[in-house]
Amino acid sequence: MSNIVEEDLVVVSNTFGEIYSKAKSQKEKREIGQFFTPQHIAEYMAKLSTFSESKKMRILDPGCGNLILSVNLIQTLVVKGKVSYIELDLYETDLKLEENIQSMVTAMREFLESLGIGFKCNIILKDFVLENAKYINSDFLNKYDIIISNPPYFKLPKDDPKSIATQQINGGFPNIYSMFLAICSNMLNQKGEMIFIVPRSFTSGLYFKKFRKYFLSHVNIKSIHLFQNRNDTFKKDQVLQELLILKAVNKPVDQVYISSSSTLLDDISVKSYGYKEIYDIADDNSYIFIPTNITEDKILRIVSSWKNKLEDFGITISTGPVVDFRTKENIFKSSNDVENLKPYFRLNNVTQMKLEWPLNSLVKGQYIHGNNSTKSILRANENYIFLRRQSAKGDSNRLICSPYYKDDYQIDFIGIDNKLNYLYSKNRSLTAEEIFGLSALLNSAFMNSYFQIFNGNINVSASEIKELKFPSYDVLIDIGKKISKDKLTDISIINAYINEKINYE
Ligand SMILES: C[S@@+](CC[C@H](N)C(=O)[O-])C[C@H]1O[C@@H](n2cnc3c(N)ncnc32)[C@H](O)[C@@H]1O
Question: From the alpha carbon of 149, which atom of ligand 1 is closest?
Fold first, then answer.
């Protein structure tokens, strides 16, 4: 009997959500980050809760929308049969939802009371971040047992009151979902758990570093479920980020469960990892690794034994300094146009292991004039590695680079476009072995897969490359010697050689 009534609530919430959502434009929905959780995902999230004490339970649903998450969670708790009193706090800023929230809460109360379960609900039609940002730094007293949420996702300007109120955890582009996560991580009681569906973007990158440090010093990740493709479930609402479901708890955690599936939640595969394999507390970067198959698993285990970053080899990486539209008058198409032209390398000149310059098919100018105004944006003719800052959509390789060998160019200075990163040393010249060895490694299938375990987008930032781990310097130089001696450019041969050197089959 109870299930039938509760299922009615789920149906009402879901149907209302669909109708309400259809009536709103994509623009309106994007502005307030309103994308309702599909019922099958809400049910999956609710079932992740393992909190099972028979006592007064305090639950929070910030950004509650149509209450689909609360309804499913309460259904799960009722089925477990131990709960005797529920206090539910709801936050929502879309005032047009008020009437619906009220009637859902009334139905919930009738249902719970019919089962002898006490129920109190606080509907707070206020901005969750502005109301609670103060708890990032101070103690929140009346802590929650379970927090369940599909928070809004959108970037906010730095001067937005919410960004200012949460300054401590914001990197370059504050995103509202990380504010919800950070605040909630300080609102859980000792045995509490938080279950969120959020974009994957917080797991890596510099912009979320402060947030990661804060969040992971307050809670421990217990499980992550990654959606591997974005089929119609999310597409209809144009949610284009990679999403994941995260469960974090207050208690210490030994094992982390990582699973993945399509958005239909069919074919789920789960694996467990030691906490340190997923999250390296000692690493300043605080990346969270999400391996989703056996290959990624093997890669992580190999990389976890590597100790070196580029800086340990005395090598660094910067973004190319030439922005063509800012120096249009100095860019030329033919070497005969004027005197004193230098090679100017663009993204298209760089392919895996091969620098193709000048490229006949490229319409844009590939020469830059050496003069006083370009002096500061030219670089000395030294050995470098040019690495694309962006891979093409659908390209399986994110890391595409070529060695730049100075002896191939009889010139004093060169131009490097700002769509390229370049690797160099601040106080010495890179050797031929270094540029060939590093180029081969960065282009390899192994490093590409490793990079993609924590990078979900097509951009390749210099800061992320600085954080990559590499095998020992000796291995790097051995690879470089082999590549330069045999003049290897064929990636499949390079892959086979690298895999052998790093014990990866
Ligand atoms: C992604 S929707 C999720 C709704 C519902 N919880 C679900 O799972 O379907 C996020 C909800 O948060 C609300 N919201 C946006 N900004 C908010 C804020 N600052 N404080 C509270 N709610 C907010 C939106 O109106 C929207 O209903």
Answer: 6
Coil, strand or helix at 216:
helix
Range 205-210 average pLDDT: 86
Contact in structure between 65 and 36 (CB atoms under 8 Å): yes
Rounded to an integer, the average pLDDT of 485-504 is 93
CA distance 418 to 321: 5
What domains lie within the chain, and their CATH numbers? 2-292 (3.40.50.150), 311-501 (3.90.220.10)
Mean pLDDT for the chain overall: 90
Determine the Cα–Cα distance for residues 25 and 8; give it in Å rounded to an integer: 28
Distance 46 CA to ligand 1 centre (A): 17
Q: Can you say whether the dihedral through the CA atoms of 430, 436, 441, 445 is positive or negative? A: positive
Ligand 1 pocket test: which of 44, 94, 233, 234 has the largest number of ligand atoms within 8 Å of its C-beta? 94
Per-residue pLDDT tens for 280-296? 766 777 888 888 778 88
DSSP 357-390: -S-TT--S--EEE-STTTGGGEEES--EEEEESB
Q: Does 358 sit behind a cis peptide bond, omega within 30 degrees of 0 on the bond before it?
A: yes
Q: At residue 421, what is the residue type?
A: N
Nearest to 347 by CA among 460, 470, 495, 480: 460
Average of pLDDT values for 370-398?
91
Q: Is 129 in the pocket of ligand 1 (CB under 6 A)?
A: yes
Q: Is 127 in the pocket of ligand 1 (CB under 6 A)?
A: yes
C-alpha dihedral over 173, 174, 176, 181, to 10 degrees? 120
92: its two tokens: 């929502």
Residue 232 has pLDDT above 60, yes or no: no
- What is the distance between the alpha carbons of residues 351 and 481, in angstroms, rounded to a whole number? 20
